[in-house]
Every structure is written in structure tokens, then in C-alpha cells.
Amino acid sequence: MSETSTEQPAAAPAGAASTDAPVIIRTVHLKKEYDRKGVITQALRGVDMTIHSSEFIAVMGPSGSGKSTFFNMIGGLDSPSSGRVFIDEVDVAQLSAGELAFLRCRKIGYIFQSYNLIQYQTALENVTTPMAFAGVDPDEARRRGMELLDLVGLKDRWFHRPIEMSGGQQQRVAIARSLANNPMILLADEPTANLDLRTGQEVLNILQRVNEEKQVTIICATHDHRMLSICDRLIWIRDGGIERIARRDEVNIEVGAIEGEEDE
Questions:
Q1: What pTM does this model have?
Q2: Contacts of 228 (CB under 8 A, 6+ apart)
Q3: Does residue 244 contact residue 236 with C-beta atoms inside 8 Å?
Q4: Are the C-beta atoms of 33 and 209 separated by less than 8 Å?
Q5: What is the CATH number of the domain that holds 239?
Q6: Are 218 and 238 in contact (CB under 8 A)?
Q7: Beta bridge pairs of residue 117
């Protein structure tokens, strides 16, 4: 008689991604130091991180923890003091200025807390400007721009300029612009910070839809605890290092705070 094994597979480590999707971002011993008149500040202290395609990641931590520096590194906006950043298995440090600009234009979309829209341009012009840099035909750019504005619920306001829109509408235009060149990765820096609760929830719903329908990898720096309901993993950064990584099902929400995060 054959024996039936009762051995159970080893449990995944806490915070491990529950996905077989390919790795899209990888950092290896990532460090960043700033020298301000001889005073050295260590913004990142050897961060090792792996993010998979189509994941929705929430990055949390107090002000000055290194979140923005981490974003700048993986977004190709700044260079590490040491360590490496791989995007789609390409070592960013080995790219020329032109290749890096191509990477930022074609593979990464950015959403900023302050929207960063061009004030004299219409919503449609703001959305299609990145397409012009990518060499997209103007007619095709207009068609895609209107589709993206429809995605964020602003197709009927394509001719409005930022001054004629609310903060929530401006952030939705910013989301549409971030998707202009069909990026693989979307970096969102506090996308709901300047919005009221209802409008902030609308923005979160759009991000969730983009993640699920377009399979875009989203990495969001946030203090908004509602992000827990839509993210796959949470990463806590403190003092320039990874303090904790957890899957959504490993985190409990307490009143006014997420378990494992101290009020600042």
C-alpha cells in the first residue's frame, strides 16, 4: 500500500507577493545620500525590494522616512548613491540620458499630489502633451486623449482649463495624462491628499479600475488608509529602510490607524 504524505508546503514569508506574475521592479541594496555643506543625510539605507507586474502597492511611512526618495529612484528621476534599480530587468544606471528619457516617457506614468497640470492648456491638451513627446500622430493622440478623459469621467470637459476645474477634476486629468503612453508602471505620490473624502474615494476607484482593467502596476505613496481595500501589499518605510511588508490579508485596521503603523 502506498503511503500518503501529510507534509504541508512551507508557508510563504510574511509580506510575500501572492502572484506568479513577472518581476517588473527590483532594487538591490539601494542607497541614497545627500551631502549638504558637509552634512551627510542617508535618505535610503540599502533597500531591497521586488514588485511584480500588475501589483497595486501602497507605500506608507512618516514624513522624511524616505518615501519620496524611493519614488525618485524607481521612477528614474534621481540616481542612487549605490545599489541598483532594475525596471523590467533593465539596469537603469546603465542607460544613457536619451534611453532614460525614453524609459520615463514610455514605461512610467506619474501622478503628483499637486497635479502639475499646465495651466494654459485644456484638459485634452494636458493629456496629449506626453504623446507629442513620444511622437504619436496628432489625430491618434486626440482620439486616445478623449478615451482617457472618458475613462476618468471628464470627456465632456475636455476643453476646460485647470482653473475652471475642481481639485478632484484636476487630479482625474492628471491620472488620464499619466496613462497617455500606455505605461507599465504608475507612480502616484499622495494622490488623495488634497481632496475631500468623497472625491478622494472617486480617485481611488479610478486607480483600482486602471490596475484591474489595464493591468498597470501601481505604486502609491499615501497616508490614506482606504488604500488598504484596493492594494495587494503595503510597504512601510521608516528612517530610509523597509520596516515591514504585508499583504492586504495580513493587515488589520484599527480605529484611525493601520496595525503596525504608529501615529506621527
A1: 0.86
A2: 58, 234, 248, 251, 253, 258
A3: yes
A4: no
A5: 3.40.50.300
A6: no
A7: none
Q: Give Cβ neighbours of residue 220 (< 8 Å, ≥ 6 apart).
A: 56, 57, 58, 59, 187, 188, 189, 191, 207, 227, 231
Query: Is 2 part of a structural domain of the chain?
Result: no
Cα gap 168→186, rounded to integer Å: 18
Q: What's the length of the chain?
A: 264
Burial of residue 102, with CB atoms counted within 10 A of its CB: 0-12 exposed, 13-18 middle, 19 or more buried: middle
Number of domains in the chain: 1
Q: Give residue 198's domain range.
A: 23-119+170-251
- Residue 174 is placed in which grid cell? 492628471
Residue 126: C-alpha distances to residues 31, 152, 164 (Å): 34, 14, 14
The C-alpha atoms of residue 48 and residue 31 are separated, in whole angstroms, by 10
- pLDDT averaged over 10-residue windows placed end to end, the chain, 264 residues: 48 65 94 90 93 95 87 89 93 91 92 91 97 95 97 95 95 96 94 89 93 95 85 93 91 54 46
Task: Kindly state the cell numbers that stand for 211.
Answer: 490596475
